[in-house]
Amino acid sequence: MSQNLLVMLKNRFKSILALVICAGLISCTTGNDSNNSVTLVDRIPTENTNQFYVSNRAPLAPSALIKLPVGSVKPEGFLKEYLIRQKNGLTGNLGEISAWLQKENNAWLSKDGTGEWGWEEVPYWLKGYANIGYIMNDQPMIDESIIWLEAVLTSQRENGDFGPKLMDGDHPDFWAKMIMLYCLQSYYEYSQDERVIALMTNYFKYELTVPDEEFLEGYWQRLRGGDNLHSVLWLYNRTGDEFLLELAEKIHQNTSDWAGRDLPIEQVRNHYEVRDGGEVPDWYRDQVDWHNVNHAQAFREPAQYYLLTKNEKDLQATYENFKIIREHFGQVPGGMFGSDENARPGYADPRQGVETCGMVEQMNSDEHLLRITGDPFWADHAEEVAFNTYPAAVMPDFKSLHYITSPNMALLDAENHSPGIANSGPFLMMNPFSSRCCQHNHSQGWPYFIENLWMATPDNGVVAAMYGASKVTVKVGDGTEVNIEETTHYPFEEEIKFALSTEKAVEFPLYLRIPTWAKGASITVNGEVMKDNISGIGYAKISRTWANGDQVALTLPMEIQTKIWEKNSNSLSVSRGPLTYSLKIREKYFKKDSEETAQWDSKWQKGVDKKKWPAWEIHPVTDWNYSLVVDENDPASSFEVMEGHWPKSDFPFSLEEVPIKIVAKARQIPEWQLDQYGLVGELKDLPKTSDQPVVDVTLVPMGAARLRITAFPELLNSNN
Ligand SMILES: [Zn+2]
Q: How many Cα atoms sit within 13 Å of 649 on the Cβ side?
């Protein structure tokens, strides 16, 4: 063959190759709509059933979104940094602090259910601690978790009961076991250990034999039956055992009536706590209970029951519950409500707070409801609590936390603030020895949030349901396993990038949630704008045959928004995207003895090193009594956003390192001071004018502020 001919053939081959590549490109970039398009949908369709992940089994209502097994989503950025801080801080070391976690004579470790410390604390802690281990592939944490889980798995008695032999008054206590069932489910997702299925099956057979008058009879367990119901349906989806549907019905019948309205007052707990001895308002009878943690976790029970009944009324009851508590106690920024133990009529000012337990249970409920309904409202809300209120409840090093966090909070000390807040004692102290329930229950917040960032969809696709830097491994389309890396500093920046890796091309829908606050979102695929100006819709669906290296970028414009809280004296709050902003107050930390500043029900281990685990008071160094000066006609123009560098620590939730601030104009209100209870004075008592000069103040994301003013009082002369 001549040299020329060889060159000619080579060139010809190149041309053919180029043509083939070109044809491929053409079909990728301009091809038909069904295989390269972005469409907008309110909800993700549920006609199909996901072929790779366990979904709701008939006759249950179909799964809207499907949880991926723990470990499928790996955090990056600050989410990873949070898990590291939890491990090095309170969550990872609680075993050497908390009396309930000591192993000696611990009822959770005993074969026959006898011993001490056998209530909610161990499983509260374990449900977050173990999941951090699974998510981070941290073998020491996994090994420690398995000591507790193994003891549970080998503790089942002849009658099917397991774990500590617990009584709640004269009746058996099912509550602590509801939490341990969550731990077992995560362990099963991690290990596929079939003993979990056997234990749960036998335990639920036992529950079915318990007479109604003995079942869920105590205060906490009766209100929180929804958690038991969740675990029964989880097992039903895996085994299809018919008796589980019967048990699900029985649990619902024995759980407090969370769909009840206009209830007899005797059925409503906490009704005696009305301010100044006033009358119980009629609306107080529209919820069966007003304890903050009970509400945050149990308001969802009717929506869980809806999976059985498919009756829209049940689903609606959960939406109404959410609205009712917020209408009367949640007229504040940050996503939560004022219920510093119980929500008390007359106490709805932004100085009222919520337990750390309340926040993480609310996030867990939002994640449940997102999976049940597919409604992106619940994702918006989980992010709101996760990015604003929850980070404020713990110290930046995650070595201590407190019981109550409020939107307006200008002093954290060891004093008693009752009756300004419901409880008597040092409930505002950042203390690793204290806040018994929150001390253990805080652990689930971030790991559960991370597990739910990504979910499978019924049409064999995947959805970025909540946003955060992460990597997901998921089976899609024809069963091909793909990896998607999400790179972003969200919620501190507008752009979120996704990079796909796959061994072969695979067709599947990728859904991206469009948050309600985002106006004019846009999406590019491999640099080409596929859709822009997206607003007011649930999800963008990108249908495509995906190839290795495909890149997607989502931009969610973050505008400054102000909100007036009419029911709280027309107070004003400022948000930008998912972040709410608070007045920056310079904080001074005072180290205190953790034993001396602990609440009455705290218990710690003998010999725990108090020096290593101090408690903290936080006092304000700068003034906090400001009202913001805002142009009513163009509120956003009154603020200047200052974007800084991303912190080297990867941790944005501290005053020193927060990468974004807002400069605002403000006027002081000299009459606004701490009141006789040592709390920020109530807004209703403030004058509506101020003769103080207008000055510049700095706002920071609420989650970075351990002291904060987040609901600013109204001044009628603020502009002149
Ligand atoms: Zn708590």
A: 13
Taking the C-alpha atoms of residue 617 and residue 596, their distance in angstroms, rounded to an integer, is: 12
Q: How confident is the model at residue 27 (pLDDT cuts 50, 70, 90)?
A: very low
- The two beta strands, 519-525 and 528-535, are antiparallel
- Write out pLDDT tens, residues 296-311: 999 999 999 999 999 9
The alpha carbon of 404 and the centre of ligand 1 are apart by a number of angstroms equal to 9
- Alpha carbon of 296 to ligand 1 centroid (Å): 11
Neighbouring residues of 317: CB distance < 8 A, sequence distance ≥ 6: 258, 259, 302, 303
Is the pLDDT assigned to residue 544 strictly greater than 80?
A: yes
Give tens-digit pLDDT for 565-579: 999 999 999 999 999
Distance 440 CA to ligand 1 centre (A): 8
What spacing in Å lies between the alpha carbon of 476 and ligand 1's midpoint? 39
Each residue's pLDDT tens digit, 637-653: 999 999 999 999 999 99
How confident is the model at residue 719, as a pLDDT? 57
> Residue 442: is it exposed, middle or buried by C-beta count within 10 angstroms (0-12/13-18/19+)?
buried
Question: CA distances (Å), 322 to each of 44, 290, 303, 667, in order?
Answer: 23, 12, 12, 35
pLDDT, tens digit, 9 for 90 and up, residues 422-460: 989 999 999 999 999 999 999 999 999 999 999 999 999
Q: Name the strand (E) or helix (H) holding 77.
A: helix 77-88
Q: Which residues surround ligand 1, an ion (CB under 5 A)?
A: 355, 357, 437-438
For residue 293, the CA-to-ligand 1 centroid distance in Å is 7
pLDDT score of 714 more than 50: yes
Give the number of other Cβ atoms within 10 Å of residue 310's Cβ: 12
**356 CA to centre of ligand 1 in angstroms:** 6
- CB of 213 within 8 A of CB of 261? no
Q: For residue 52, report the distance from its CA to the centre of ligand 1, in Å.
A: 37
Kindly state the DSSP code that residue 68 receives in the 8-state scheme: P
Give residue 444 CA to ligand 1 midpoint distance, Å.
12
Contact 70, 190 (CB under 8 A): yes
| pTM as predicted | 0.94
Q: How far apart are the first and last CA of the chain?
A: 92
Output the CA 436–ligand 1 centroid distance in Å: 7
**What angle, rounded to 10 degrees, do the helices at 194-209 and 175-191 form?**
160
Beta strands at 470-476 and 480-487: parallel, antiparallel or unpaired: antiparallel
pLDDT tens-digit readout, 501-511: 999 999 999 99
